[in-house]
Amino acid sequence: MSTMQTQAPTTWEEVLRMPDDGNRYEFIGGRLYMTPAPATRHQRVLMRLWSALLRILMDSGHGEVFSAPLMVEFPGTGDRVQPDLLFVSNERRAIIGEKQVLGAPDLVVEILSPSTAHRDRGIKLDLYARHGVAQYWIVDPVEDVVDVWRFGDEPGHERFSGEFPVRLGPERLGLIDLDEVFSRHLDQWEKDT
Question: How far apart are the first and last CA of the chain?
């Protein structure tokens, strides 16, 4: 009996030749990462945050908000990720392709899961800073906080709980109630319905 030895893909083209198994794959720095399906708490936080961003950014005409799965490719690097949420402003809408975003979104949001937290706080933080993402939000549904990383002309880091002012550049565009986004009371209500 012979055994077949498999090797991890080293290019995105090799990833595309893999059988579709329903998982989300990302390719960063020549390494393949698989993201398992998120837990229900992750999904609830994602949907509440997506709803708030639609109201603040999309409905007011600032640009488009997308949720996973949608590929973001950083041209010339081979790096490809599928953030939980992303925003592309009207001024940069040319990067929105038919099947993927080709370039750095204005905003990338990752919601921490036990299996992705290390990558989101390390490799992806560095990736987004290097490739021109203006803001990166790391949403922690255990601590009920959002870490906002700003890159570019005025880099910085802030941590928010409670009321969270949404800014792109110097302008405040709206406010998100993080108590509502992280509400476990709503989680229970959603379980009961």
Answer: 53
How many domains in the chain? 1
To the question of pTM greater than 0.90 for the whole model, the response is no
Residue 52 in 3-state DSSP?
A: helix
**72 lies in some domain:** yes
pLDDT at 1 over 80: no
Look up the CATH number of the domain holding residue 52. Answer: 3.90.1570.10
d(CA 46, CA 43): 5
* Confidence band of 12 (pLDDT split at 50, 70, 90): low
Confidence at residue 31, expressed as pLDDT on a 0 to 100 scale: 86
Those residues with Cβ within 8 angstroms of residue 173's Cβ, 6 or more apart along the chain or in another chain? 56, 57, 60, 62, 166, 167
Closest CA to 132 of 162, 160, 95: 95
